[in-house]
Design brief:
Homodimer. Heterotetramer of two MnmE and two MnmG subunits. It comes from Sphingobacterium phlebotomi. Exhibits a very high intrinsic GTPase hydrolysis rate. Involved in the addition of a carboxymethylaminomethyl (cmnm) group at the wobble position (U34) of certain tRNAs, forming tRNA-cmnm(5)s(2)U34. The protein is an alpha/beta fold. It contains 17 helices and 13 strands. The strands form 2 sheets. The chain has a 7-stranded mixed beta sheet. A 6-stranded mixed beta sheet has the order 9-10-8-11-12-13, sandwiched between helices. The radius of gyration is 29 Å and the shape is flat. It binds guanosine-5'-diphosphate (GDP).
Length: 469
């Protein structure tokens, strides 16, 4: 790579969480001098003669002063995370020990690592491609089964392999197109245009699927935003409380989580649902009347799912139909929820529910459920609908894109492929076609970093990591 970012420095950082209460901290070094520098402060076995992938007990000393008893793990490049020599020192988890040890290693020639620098080196040294490196950050940030699964798949090269296949197919064709150019005036076609067109079609289908998967991927990664809307006294806060109640016991056990943010989300079978803007809902009645239609629309705009609550005493079917049409936007999942079915005469479904269904299915919604918001069992059906709706977004056996950078690159690649397609229709000469194909290739390759990636882009990507990763 000609990014000029690979440096000869040996870097050092705390690899475990700073300030956490755990028993052990791990300090990591990577670079040419990693083993020599560690050996200079370590009393125990001579690390320079120790084989790779071995662990050694000993002490760290600053001159005569004993700093800690430690375990040192050795990984000799290229058989390490960064592909360089890597040393991991497990110390007792004391802020004092960590500071002293890192200070000592810096004094002996290491340099403090920047955010994401270990993973950046892994990428620059060919240990992983860019999308895999990004997945490392996602994996570390993953908080539930679904986001963990997607990040793990991406880290292990799921998306890279798919993109690699596409690249190879395109490269083969560009090579043939370019060969035609060598023959100049002679009117030869090495690249079969019909086959080429079929290939472009096939690639477009793959890319469109990947782009579509982003809606799901993004929802999984950041949680599915849900808006609860309805008239005053429809039971919005009651429903929210019922949904949150079961979770609360689990949530409050997680040390270090902020209750304020966690409280308003639930985790259903590994998928997080975030109830947006619920502050108003809890204190005042967050109703269309109270917050105004524009505000309600804004709120719904931020949501992927709208839970619209009504009941058969305070609402009319016309009102509900009108408001859903007003609030709807393309792609919004609308779940109509008729509340208070436990009240006398509140049986479900009644004529009102049927009228609403008739007017709104299937263009605005395809889910209507009757509940009693006060009753946990009754809310189960609603939970299942929520889960089903999100799972429907996932395409079977499909790689899932969770990264905005990737989806943008894919969109550009798709545009370029469309230009190739138009070019084929217009029977453009090979050099012009090759130009558009190279454009598509550039965008596809930028996802995995198979072309030189701008320093600024790398800076942005790896800057999001913490120091030590
Ligand atoms: P909000 O204004 O939409 O947030 O409505 P609330 O959740 O504050 O509920 C308004 C009133 O309806 C309260 O007195 C609730 O106890 C009551 N309520 C909510 N859900 C139900 C239900 O399923 N059945 C019955 N019988 N009452 C309910």
């Amino acid at each position: 790579m000609s990014t000029g970012l690979v440096s000869q420095d040996t870097i050092v950082a705390l690899a475990t969480s700073p300030g956490a209460n755990g028993a052990i901290a791990v300090i990591r070094l990577s670079g040419l001098q990693a083993i020599t520098i560690t050996n200079g402060v370590f009393k125990g076995k001579d690390l320079l003669s120790a084989p790779s992938h071995t662990i050694h007990f000993g002490t760290i000393r600053d001159g005569e002063e004993l700093i800690d008893e430690v375990l040192v793990s050795l990984f000799k490049g290229p058989h390490s995370y960064t592909k360089e020599d890597v040393v991991e020192i497990s110390t007792h988890n004391s802020t004092y020990i960590i500071e002293r040890l890192i200070g000592l290693l810096i004094k002996k020639g290491a340099r403090a690592a920047q955010a994401g620098e270990f993973t950046l080196r892994a990428f620059l040294n060919g240990g992983m491609d860019l999308s895999q490196a990004e997945a490392v950050a996602d994996l570390i940030a993953s908080e539930n089964k679904a986001s963990h699964e997607i990040a793990m798949n991406q880290m292990r090269g799921g998306i890279s392999n798919k993109l690699q296949q596409m690249r190879e197919q395109l490269i083969n064709f560009t090579a043939l197109l370019e060969l035609e150019l060598d023959f100049g005036e002679e009117d030869v076609e090495f690249a079969d245009r019909a086959q080429f067109e079929a290939l472009i079609q096939e690639l477009k289908v793959h890319i469109v699927k990947l782009i579509q998967s982003f809606a799901y991927g993004n929802a999984i990664k950041h949680g599915v935003p849900v808006a609860i809307i309805g008239k005053p006294n429809a039971g919005k806060s009651t429903l929210l409380n019922t949904l949150l109640d079961e979770e609360r016991a689990i949530v409050s056990d997680i040390a270090g989580t902020t209750r304020d943010t966690i409280e308003e989300s639930i985790n259903l079978e590994g998928i997080t649902f975030r109830f947006i803007d619920t502050a108003g809902l809890r204190e005042t009645a967050d109703t269309i009347e109270a917050i105004g239609v524009t505000k309600a629309k804004e709120k719904v705009r931020q949501a992927k799912v709208l839970l619209y609550l009504y009941d058969d005493k305070d609402n009319t079917a016309e009102e509900v139909i009108l408001q859903i049409k007003e609030l709807y936007y393309e792609g919004l999942i609308v779940i109509l929820v008729r509340n208070k079915i436990d009240l006398e005469g509140g049986y479900y479904p009644n004529d009102m529910d049927t009228a609403i269904k008739d007017a709104l299915f299937p263009d605005y919604s395809d889910s209507l459920v009757g509940i009693s918001a006060k009753d946990t069992n009754s809310v189960e059906g609603l939970k299942n609908i929520l889960l089903d709706k999100i799972r429907e977004m996932a395409i079977e056996d499909q790689h899932i894109i969770t990264n905005t950078r990737h989806v943008e690159a894919l969109q550009h690649a798709l545009d370029a492929l469309e230009q190739v397609e138009q070019g084929l229709d217009m029977q453009l000469p090979g050099d012009l076609l090759a130009h558009h194909v190279r454009g598509a290739l550039r965008y596809i390759s930028s996802i995995t970093g198979d072309i030189d990636v701008d320093r600024d882009i790398l800076g942005t990507i790896f800057g999001k990591f913490c120091i030590g990763k």
